[in-house]
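Limitations
The structure tokens in this dataset are predictions for the assembled complex, not deposited experimental models. Users should treat interface geometry with appropriate caution, especially where small molecules or nucleic acid strands are included. An illustrative entry is reproduced here so readers can see what is and is not provided.
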Amino acid sequence: MPASSGGSSRDLHPLRRRSAVIVVGLLLAAAVVVLVAMPFLREPVVADDRLDAPTDAEEQRLALVEARDRALGALKELEFDHRTGKVDDADYRELVGPLRQAAAAALRALDSPQE
Amino acid sequence: MPTRSPARLVVALAVAGVLAIFLVYTAIAGHSIPTLTPSQIQGKSGKLSIVGTVVGKLDGDSHGASGLRFQLVDPQGHSAKRVDVVYHGAAPPPLFRVGRSVVVSGRYADGRLQGTDIVTKCPSKYTSAPS
Amino acid sequence: MADLGRAALVVTFGLAVYALVAGGIAARRNERRLAASARNALYCSFASTLIAAAVLATALVRHDFTFTYVAAHTNRHLPVAYALSAFWGGQEGSLLLWLLVLTGYGALAVAMNRRLLRDLTAWVVPVFAGIATFFSFVLVAVASPFDTQTAPFDGAGLTPSLQNPYMVAHPPMLYLGYVGLSVPFAFAAGALLSGRTDERWIVATRRWTLAAWAFLGFGQLLGAHWAYVEVGWGGYYAWDPVENAALMPWLAATAFLHSVMVQERKGMLKVWNMVLVALAFELSVFGTFLTRSGVVNSIHSFSKSSIGPWFLAFVVISSIFSLALITWRLPLLKAKTKLESALSREAAFLYNNLLLVALCLTILWGVLFPIVTQLFKGETRTIGRPYYDFFLRTFGLPLLLLMGIGPLIAWRKTSLRGLARTLTWPIVAAAVTGVALVAAGAGSSSPGLIAYTFSAFVLATIVVELVRGTRATGSLWTLVSRNRRRYGGYVVHAAVVLLAIGIAGSSAYSSSVERRLALGQSMTLAGYTLTNRGVTVDPKPNVTETRAHLDVTGPWSGTISSGDNQYVNPPEPSREVGIKTDWLRGEDLYVIVDEAHPKTGLIFVQVLVKPLINLIWIAGIVFLFGAAVALWPDAREQRRLVARLAPAASA
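Predicted assembly:
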């Protein structure tokens, strides 16, 4: 097909081209409709339509896991900073206590499930 | 243990300090110049910028003693008021020509702008209508 | 073909509206299938936008001048690469690019997180869809790239100074940045809407934010480099509103990248992070509003465009929406811990944020000032360079210093004694550097000297960190791969330091002189001697090149040429400067011949010597590398995340 024709005059019959475009367009539109309706087509009737989000119990457990990871991460970082000399001995002694307590508490809370 | 942490006070003071620097500077130093169109120039004088479309013949040379002379009109074309400009300095940017929108900065007195700086705009690419 | 493009955009609009409404209902009523349907609609909106984009791209490559847009921005002579880059060269096409990136990012971000954060993602879909609704509406109803006309014989063409690889890459890179900021925004809004205001949304969008920020930063450097070599006034940043439009969201995003670390470790600053991410997003849309609307005088555009009011309305409405959302969820955003010491990593991040946001808002004030004075005084007043330079120094230099101190402060608190110990070597290094610099003559500029000294300090702290860390873990590779975020961050800091040195050198220590040189006449500047050897005129098929040639002796010997090009199609001139980079001395010799008379050989020339300016461009490369390290996917971290948040492998 000539590259710079400046118009569609030398292409295939404009009508045929137009029809092709319309057909392609309709097919694409149909595909879109099917895709958007897919969840309902796949499961027309369903027992549980809920979003499957974490339950409250799961949420609480997640929060505890995150608290534990945060506490352990902070402890690891402090140890590393102490080892590389960023935190000196005096500062380390002062900071490590509360962090160890927090980590221990988080681990305890995870192990013993709440009521 | 103090009831209110001094750390927060320090941070609050830092915020106040930054704000103070800003306010003091803008109050003292100013550094804003009026940017006017030719129709708004009436009665003004001193350091300012004029926004306008270049019209008329381009006379002279910016490097020469009498400078580059031209006129500016309102960019929107609302008024026919023209302002004489005499520009001295480096040659104007390559896009400068009659019909272009420019901003000329300098000193305005006695109905004439002694221009020291010209800024031309890229031909507008972001208008909806084709240029 | 234009019909197909137009239809595709209408489909995108329809899908966006559906995803917005259905997605909102599904999230509100907790309905799985409807939420999945809304998600699919979002995915399909990307596909239909892609079709529209393909139509436009094809038309550009084929020089189809029945498209009004193609005729306005290309012509027959234009090489294919530049014809394609005209896609984003004008209003309508660049909006289409924005929508394409938006739907693409949205689809990908939602797809990647739909199982990990089910209820949060359910709300992210309508937020993304809302933004897409706006942009697709504008493209369908206000500024369509698919308007047609009777084809003229040839198009208007692309301004020659824009036919440049940098200008090809600059807008898409910026858009990947601007639009990328919608991802953390959408997830933040999703977090607030779903009530899941813990750190999960931050962790999920961390790499997205980092990538967007990196693109935005690098895109700006590309633009600055283009301005330096192509526009040719000797500078690279003019504090023009359109330049600031990219800088402001970048500064806000930088602040955000830092403050989220405080929320992740300490559960603090939750409200602040929400405000920051909304600010970054709003500034990115506001920035594009400034560029397009003509509401402020800028080097890019004068004329007022009809698109301005729509963008302004969107910024106002989305800002109100964000503020309302944050206010409503304020009870959920209570901090878990308090700030305990003014000398702690948390506090350091707060100071960092304070300075970055202060700089950002200062620039915003400067940009809005003409509008404000017009409204309240009836007279437009513009703020000039000195204002911006002052605040860049006043906020930037302390920020530079903080970049060195911050990483060496521990979380929760650090004693002054401990800090002094860690900082001893860097302070010594900085002091020695300072003295050496003064001896070398750098004392001529106080801000420059301070910038150099602070830079030495920061570089020393980075080296100290790397050395200590390597000693502790055994190898640099292990050190970096175990904590890519931190050490990638250090590399980025090093890039910022290089940037600071480059900016300081090229502004505080540059020299410049203007001369009128007759044929054979010489001039000197900073050790260089330049002699006018005459003017040549070289006519080529599409361009006539006029060049003045100067012989140079001094630190470097050779010939440098400068002049202008007069193009035929489109009939535009462009200034061509001569730049010679001396890598050994680290400076550029920059020659601008603004008037050349071929017959007499008389020229008017401005010569500049810009020390260390190339560090700015090198900083860009280092910046990308650092961002890449920080972005590097961590398989272990990803597995942990999945195990925690999606324990049951569901469909």
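Some entries come with short summary sentences. For this one: Chain C has a mean pLDDT of 91.
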